[in-house]
Amino acid sequence: MLVAAKERHNLFTNLGLSLTLRLLALDADFIKLQECEQQWPPILPNPKDLYTNFYQRIETVTNNVICGSCGCVYHSISDIHYLPCSSGQLSSLAIDPDIVPFDFSSGVPDLDDRNIMIDKLALESSDNVCRLTLCSSCYNNIIRSCRPAESLANYRWIGQVPDVLLELSWIEEMLVARAHFVGRIVRLQERMAGSYLSIKGHIILLPQDTTRLLDRLPVSPSTLPDLIRVVWVGKSTPNKSMLQKHFTIHTKKVRDALDWLCRHHEDYRNVRVNLNEFDQWDPEWFVASELLESIGRVLDSSTEDASRSGVATEDPDNEDVEGDLGFTTSAILDMNNVSQPPDSIALNNLIELKREELTINVVGKTILNDYSEETYFTSAFPTIFPWGTAKHLDSRREIPLPLNQWARLMIKNSSRYVHSRPCHN
User: What is the DSSP pairing of strand 123-126 with strand 80-84?
Assistant: First the structure.
């Protein structure tokens, strides 16, 4: 009985102490609140200092600085380090030129004499000294004489995209690709009354199950409706004769691109050019009539427009659209088709129009796996990987790159492809 009484006494004592401390904390908060009320409104900072601080802060993160090792873009100077091109520590980026299918020389003797692979956009000259910019991760590895896993020299070299591939339109690219992992719904609409010069392009990408890589190219333009659906949005009737330039295929451009790929792209070594297919094409150019004739109609776009958020990046009233469309793309990065597109109104409208499944017809039972198929991406996107290099899987890498890390590096790449590609907007 005495023990129980003592425990109850200790319990009440502890509760009382806890309550007292809580009350003291509330009193302190109340006093602080009173002080804030007495000082209201606070003294505003000097507008000039406010602007200066804002400008300086923004300026630190609005730079486009390239890492010479991994080729990624960084925006804050604090993330960048420098090494002179003569530094012996850069030898960890050396690579045997015989295994690289293109010339990767930088024009700097200190680097080229040692066969050091870097992104040339990262070269700087200061006080007559050539130096290389490096991100923190690559720098920390290089000064320890270790080759960074992210480096281009770690079998991540991509190479310059040749003009013969840069000149392909979006339709022509599809004709020379060995696989199509996404189907497309292309939305067109008239943005200004009476003007077809203001057509807006918008693409929705839908993951597809692909079972094999094609070894006989090009594919027939008649198969394009299996890969693409075009929807005209609005009450006006699409003038197909005015739209033809956006669905034009230039025979020589496709033939030259395919010939180049067969000679230089490592995934196209066993690809055979389908001469019979080319013989059926017009020698100069023709319109993908099957695709053009398959255009669906959505009379009222208000429901779809209301379901979308964000701002279109293209100029809707641009009158200089020649050949290719300036697309804004909504991408679903789900190669294994494990999720459903969250915004499927356009797709549903199209299904109502066509009453058919919008999928690519494939033959076989085994679906290509992006985790185990080394040519999965390089074969499907030859205009991004013109030499078939920089695969996400490469047994020669000392340190393997997980798929998600490889994808991040590709997204952050300085992308000579984007910088040098003709702008159709």
Answer: unpaired
286 to each of 85, 251, 278, 330, how far by Cα in Å?
51, 8, 12, 29
Tally of CB atoms within 10 A around 279: 8
CA distance 222 to 226: 9
pTM of this structure: 0.72
Cα dihedral 373, 375, 379, 380 sign: positive
**pLDDT of 316:** 42
Are the beta carbons of 211 and 266 closer than 8 angstroms?
no
Give pLDDT < 70 ranges for the chain.
1-15, 191-201, 300-365, 415-425
Residue pair 81/136 in contact by the 8 Å Cβ criterion: yes
pLDDT score at 338: 37
pLDDT at 82: 94
Name 350's Cβ contacts closer than 8 Å, sequence gap at least 6: 185, 229, 231, 296, 298, 358
Q: What is the DSSP string of 284-314?
A: SEEE-HHHHHT-EEES--HHHHHH--S---S
Q: What is the pLDDT at residue 302?
A: 60
Where does 39-103 have alpha helices with state H?
A: 47-60
- Res 15: pLDDT: 67
Looking at residue 365, its pLDDT comes to 59
Please tell me the predicted confidence (pLDDT) of residue 238: 82
Q: Rounded to whole angstroms, what are the CA distances from 25 to 18, 22, 32, 35?
A: 11, 5, 11, 15
Q: Which residues pair with 232 in a beta bridge?
A: 188, 297
- The three-state secondary structure class of 248 is strand
